[in-house]
Amino acid sequence: MLGYLYQCREALLLAIVETRSQPGLSVSIERFDDVAFEQNGTATELLQLKHHVNPASLTDMSVDLWKTLRIWSEAVAADPQAPFERRFSIITTAQAPAGSAAELLRATRPSIDAEKDALALLKAAATTSISEETAVGRKAFLALSDRDQENLLAAIHIHDQAPSITNARSEIEEQLFFSAPDGKVADLVDHLEGWWFSQVVACLADVASPAISLLALRAKIDEIAKAFRNNELLISPEALAVSADDLPESDGRTFVRQMRCVDVAEESIELAKLDFYRATAQRSTWARENALLDGEAARYDADLVERWKRERLARESGGKPISDDEKKTFGRDLFHWASRAQAPFRNRHEQWLCTGSYQILSDGVTVGWHPDHSTMFGTSAKDEAA
Q1: CB 64 within 8 A of CB 92
Q2: What are phi and psi of 190, to 5 degrees?
Q3: What is the pLDDT of residue 383?
Q4: In sequence order, which residues have a C-beta less than 8 Å from that of residue 276 and are 6 or more positions away?
Q5: Quick one: pLDDT at residue 78?
Q6: pLDDT value at position 176?
Q7: Which is more confident, 318 or 156?
Q8: What pLDDT is stored for residue 317 in this prediction?
Q9: What's the pLDDT at 243?
C-alpha cells in the first residue's frame, strides 16, 4: 500500500516539475509503466518508482534493478527503436553505491565512458549471480544483442536517494511555495493532492480514460491559489467523495426520523442523507482549516432558520393544518421547499451545501417539517440555550 501511495505522490511531484518545461505532456500511472509521461498517447518517458522505508542500496545485484531491467529488456526486445523514442528512468529512495552501474547511469553521467563501464558491470553481474530472484531479469537482459543493450543503457537515467513519501510531500510544498499566500501552502497542497488522487483513481478504474494533462494540473494549481488569494471557500475532495455507497443502510438519526414522520419518499430521503453527510464533511473541513470567518457558520445557519420560519408562517397564513394527514402533507411540502432552497455560503452555491445544512439543523431540531416536530423530537438546542 505504501508503495502505491508513494507512486501517486511522487508522480504529482514529477508532474509539477515537468509543467515548467513540457506543459503539453500528460502523465499516466500503471499504463505504460509505474508512471509515464505521454504526448498524444505515446510514451516519452517510462518511470519505475522504488520506495524503501529502511536504507537500501541499488547495487549491481539489486533485485529492484534487475526486476526493472527485465521489464525494459522485454520492451526493447519487442521494439528495438524504443530507446530512441523514450527515456527509461528509475526513481528510488535507495542509494547507488560508488562505482556501481547505477551510479554510472545517473542522469548526469560521471564520465564519457560511463555507459560502457556500466554495461560491463551489468554483464558481469548477470553472468555470475546465482540469485533466483533476479534470474528472469538477467536472462532477459543477456538475451538482447550487444547493440540493444548499449541502446537501452544510453536511454536509462537513474535518480537515486529520491525523497521518501514524507519528504516528497515537503518537496511538493517547496515547489508551490510562491503559489499560495503566507501560511497557506500546506492547505493548497492538501486540496491539490485530493484532486490529484481522485484523478489517479479515475484513470486506474477506467483504462480507456485519458492520461492526466499537465495543463489541467497547472490550471488546478492556479484555481486553488486564486481561491486562497481572494479568500474564497474551496470545496474539499472529502466532501465530494461522499457517495450513496457510503451512507449507512440503517440510519436512525433525528433528521431521518423527521423526514419519515411526514412520509417523505425513500428516494428523497436518500438524497437528503447524501446532502447531510456531504455538508457535514465540508463544514468540518472548513472549521479544521480555520477557513471560516468569526461567526460565519452561525450567521449562515441563522439565515437558513429565518428563511424556514418565513416560509412556514407563509404556509400557515391560510390556516394551520389540523388533521394528521394535513400535518403530514404540510410537512412534506415544507421539506421539499427546503430541499430546493438556495442560499450561498460565501462564494459557494452548491445545492447540497444549503439543503445539507438544513438537514443538519433538522438533526438538532432547530428546524423541522411536521408542525409538531418540537414535541415529537425534543426541544431544539437553540431554545434550550435561550
Answers
A1: yes
A2: -55, -50
A3: 54
A4: 255, 356, 359, 360, 363
A5: 97
A6: 95
A7: 156
A8: 94
A9: 86
Give tens-digit pLDDT for 35-63: 999 999 899 999 999 999 999 999 999 99
- Amino acid letter, 50: K
**What pLDDT does 385 receive?**
42
pLDDT of residue 386: 40
C-alpha cell of residue 220: 488546478
Q: Is the pLDDT confidence value at 264 over 70?
A: yes
The pTM of the whole model exceeds 0.85: no
Length of the chain: 386
Alpha helices in 163-295, H assignment, sequence order: 165-175, 185-205, 214-229, 237-241, 254-260, 266-288
Q: 349-378 burial, b for 16+ CB within 10 Å, e for fewer?
A: ebebbbbbbbbbbbbebbbbbbbebeeebe
CA-wise closest residue to 300 among 254, 354, 249: 354
Cα–Cα nearest to 158, from 111, 90, 108 = 90
Name the amino acid, one letter, at 84: F
Q: Is 348 helix (H, G, I), strand (E, B) or coil?
A: strand
10 Å Cβ neighbour count for 226? 11
Give the three-class secondary structure for 95: strand
Q: What percent of the chain has pLDDT over 70?
A: 98
Backbone angles phi, psi at 175, to 5 degrees: -60, -30
Sign of the Cα torsion 52, 166, 218, 8 reads positive
Q: How far is CA 336 from CA 3, 329, 330, 331, 369, in A?
A: 47, 11, 10, 9, 9
Amino acid 258 reads Q
349/333 Cα distance (integer angstroms): 23
- Edge-first strand order for the sheet with 26-29 is 156-159, 87-92, 42-50, 35-39, 26-29, 212-213
CA distances from 310 to 305, 317, 338, 351, 367 (A): 9, 11, 12, 20, 12
Q: Is the pLDDT score of 262 beyond 90?
A: yes
Long-range contacts at 106-113 (CB < 8 A, ≥ 24 apart): 106/157, 106/158, 106/159, 106/160, 107/157, 107/158, 107/159
- Beta bridge mates, 29: 35
The residue that leads in pLDDT, 183 or 276, is 276
d(CA 271, CA 279): 12
Q: Which residue has the cell 522485454?
A: 74
- By the 10 Å C-beta count (0-12 exposed, 13-18 middle, 19+ buried), 329 is classed as middle
